[in-house]
Design a protein that fits this description.
139 residues; two-stranded antiparallel sheet; 34% helix
């Protein structure tokens, strides 16, 4: 089928219904985009769960090696990895209780999209969560 961007209302609903975001590829380096965006989302009231095997803690939260290792409930997965990693991450996501999969700006994969849609996910790709939040939800 190929990726189809959800409408603005679907994206707004996803943001409003989410309390906790597992951020795959979250760096502990303050100058990295993943850190800056996750920090902004944390300041907007979301709990951020880092998923990155190369860090111990980010933004005051314990980091986990994989999505399956996270022992805290989360509604959304926000991905800061290159597009070629999305199919494997989609399979990992399907093994969680999350139902929202968000790939950051510049990150998109049609096979991952199809796989997740078949499993009932809301899928948002190639979109910055911080910008979408600012436009659709505000502070």
């Amino acid at each position: 089928m190929g990726y189809q961007h959800p409408d603005q209302e679907t994206i707004k609903t996803a943001l409003l219904e989410t309390k906790t975001i597992a951020v795959v590829g979250l760096s502990d380096k303050e100058h990295r985009t993943s850190y800056q965006i996750a920090k902004a989302m944390q300041q907007a009231g979301y709990r951020i769960i880092p998923v990155n095997p190369t860090v111990e803690e980010v933004l005051g939260e314990k980091a986990y090696d994989t999505l399956q290792d996270v022992d805290i409930d989360f509604e959304m997965i926000n991905v800061f990895r290159r597009s070629e990693f999305l199919p494997d991450l989609a399979r990992d996501a399907a093994e969680t209780n999350a139902k929202i999969f968000w790939a950051q700006q510049g990150v998109q994969d049609s096979s991952a999209y199809d796989y997740l849609k078949e499993r009932g996910f809301t899928v948002i790709m190639d979109t910055c969560i911080k910008v979408a939040h600012a436009v659709l939800v505000g502070r």
